[in-house]
Design brief:
Blueprint: H1 6-13, H2 16-19, E1 33-38, H3 44-57, E2 69-74, H4 77-85, H5 91-94, E3 102-104, E4 109-111, E5 117-122, E6 136-140, H6 148-158, E7 166-171, H7 177-184, E8 188-193, H8 204-214, H9 218-223, H10 239-244, E9 253-261, E10 274-281, E11 286-291, H11 299-312, E12 317-321, H12 328-336, E13 342-345, H13 351-363, E14 367-369, H14 374-380, H15 395-409
Parallel strand pairs: 1-7, 1-8, 2-5, 2-6, 6-7, 9-12, 11-14, 12-13
Antiparallel strand pairs: 3-4, 4-5, 9-10, 10-11
Helix pairs in contact: 11-12, 13-15
Length: about 425
Amino acid sequence: MKTWPDDLKAHLLHRWPIWAREAQLPPIDDWTNWLLLGGRGAGKTRAGSEWIRALATGDPAFVTAPVSHIALVGETYAAAREVMVEGESGLLSVHHAGDRPNWISSRRRLEWSNGAVAQIFSAEDPDALRGPQFGAAWADELAKWRNADETWNMLQFGLRLGDYPRQVITTTPRPIRLLKNILEDNRTVVSRMRTHENASNLASGFLDRVVGKYLGTRLGRQEIDGEIIDDRLDALWQRDLLDRYRCETAPHLKRVVVAVDPPVTGTVKSDACGLVVAGIGEDQRAYILQDKTLSAVSPEKWVNMTFELYKKFEADCVVIETNQGGDLAESVLRHIAPNLPIRQVKATRGKWLRAEPVAHLYERGLVSHVGSLPELEDEMCDFGLEGLSSGKSPDRMDALVWALTDLMLNARNLPRARAI
């Protein structure tokens, strides 16, 4: 190959069917949804990028004519840009220099020289999908979408161009209702891929440190093997219950709190800082508004995020657990916001006993999640009697428990918000 012309070598390097694994190539069967379920680093993004490239450029190995209008839908606009467009396996990287599209970041779109256009959308903004129409779509990390059902529905209404509109879905699985519905659709063809199948393209340190550690565990089966792992039978929460009372928007809330479960330290080995925003409505029901939990960050970062959430949601107070850090957490917060209304809470019972009355609120239909909160819900539905979720401290769930305990189970002496 050393003696081959450079242009021929470049051409061969960009001939995806030569290098792709079978699971990374679109099925031959008739299908509307091509669902790629795979572990972290299994090659899902590369497969999605190559399929979109082939459609936009009219690659005869995949299509008979170019697809002119394409939707790229990610968890957020930032994720869509950083992974689907600009990422190492994103659309810009898989093109030969001569056919690479023009990325217009201000308009959130890719334009090919033949007139094909791909526009990016966010699952945080499903209404943006109202109106546009497409001949194909790529939905990335669908199991993490905040407004999964609404975004998916809007996308389906937009797939109405050409003779046979199709879409590829690339995601690490979670047992959410929408993903199960897609799996059960007779128009869906599923390709499964495991992380170790892409070992030649992954750092050996990742394989040793991550794959080796989690292989065979419940979390590893989901994140490495790409399996859909259903809820634990002994867990306090079940996903069908969360789905039953889920809503897209919250009503007017008469009280809102930001709950913080701070880590002892701010190093890469420390627990995450649980950060959950919740409110109670005039209907006496609670609404979980946002999970902004941060992993392995300095006190400055989680304090700033706490204050940002307090202002964004016009919260009435900050509820902060002080078992591990004593008064340190409050003093750090007061350093930047001296008049911040803070309620300190201290754990006197184990995690299970604290969480059990909160789980009863869900069973009584008194709590709704606003949109999808995938990481938080994963912890809740894998939380067992040992007080761990997937073998780790459930920091997101802890913050949720403190928020709902304050809103729904401690009705006396609630602090009033003061100007900052």
